[in-house]
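A quick aside before the break. I want you to see a complete sequence-to-structure record at least once, exactly as it would be stored in a machine-readable document. Don't worry about memorizing anything.
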Amino acid sequence: MSKNENTCKKKRTRYQKARNWLLFWCLFIGLGAVWGGTCMLIKPDGSILHMQDMIPYFQVLPFSKYLFQNFLFPGFALLIVNGISNLTAAYFLVKNKKTGCFLGMLFGITLMLWICIQFIIFPMNFLSTSYFLFGLAQAITGFACLTFFKQEHFHFDEMEYSDINSSSKTLVLYFSRMGYVRRRAYEIANKEKAAICEVKASERTEGTLGFLWCGRFGMHGWPMNIEPLEVNPETYDKVVICTPIWVFRIAGPIRQLCRDLNGKIKNVSYVIVHFEKLGFSSAVAEMDQLLGVTHQSAHSVCCKRGKYCFDKEVI
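That is the input. The structure line, written in tokens, reads:
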């Protein structure tokens, strides 16, 4: 297992928590729907569930004369739409497949639509309201699970970049919390045949707590202490600095790096990775000020939902 895969494995905490919650909702709703639908099929008059008096409410629906004279059709619909569907999503979640995250979110929305029909035909009641909230919770958890899955599976094999370090004139420095900046840094280093060095923060940056801690630094524009670099940037003809954006500003570790390198490098370029389709020229200007130089080039790279969306030069 490569170093990057080990890193990805350690970062899987948020995804696993969201996955477990989504698995709970899929099983809770799915098994409940299977039980309810089966009861309706066994006794189409609804007597098992004590729903005999609810048939008249269905008469406002289209084709009620053919489909809603008993609970046979609603039983099949409940079994398929909310039962088997959610159990299928649960199966994919157990297998750690992205499909499970997507289906879990989708079937949460489906449940809310199902309950909206009940809001139309039934008087307001506690059970329908509760299941609407359950569907909302499932949909939100599914979206979080899908987002975390894409984030934590944004990994690559560093061994594929065989041209790195084949030239000693250029150095790529990067800080990466989730791996988005790391991958782009490796692509640049491979293209430039450059050396590469990771800027490591001395404080916690991983996981949800790390995310919140980094957000605090980004909001205030504070530098974050970093560990000593494994290379000396002053010995290189060109330095490329790759940074993520924290609350519309450069990351705290890169801010500290630029302070440390003030006046020590002359030829520098920037790569700014973020989630918005913006240029972030203010981040470029700040790095120039901190380094005491004028950059040679700067690129703004948008990485959204686990994919690079665009790469444009910042004027």
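Two observations worth writing down. Residues 13-42 form the longest helix (30 residues). The mean pLDDT is 89. We'll return to this after the break.
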